[in-house]
Recover the amino acids of this structure.
């Protein structure tokens, strides 16, 4: 929820999209349920993720000062 809140704050999602996505996530019992979110909502999340460069964040190696991080 924090990520979609940030997307709303950055005007990457409309208030309506934010509410619909939040409601979908709240009712989902499993990650598979989340994946069944309607296509227009997924499109909105994907566009916002691209602008925020979230994929790059997930692919970046952990910082050396990341606490208990295990490096290969």
């Amino acid at each position: 929820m924090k990520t979609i809140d940030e997307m709303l704050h950055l005007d990457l999602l409309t208030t309506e999209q934010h509410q619909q996505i939040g409601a979908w996530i709240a009712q989902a019992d499993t990650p598979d349920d989340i994946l069944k979110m309607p296509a227009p909502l997924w499109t909105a999340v994907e566009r916002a993720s691209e602008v925020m460069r979230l994929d790059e964040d997930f692919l970046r190696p952990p910082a050396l000062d990341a606490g208990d991080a295990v490096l290969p």
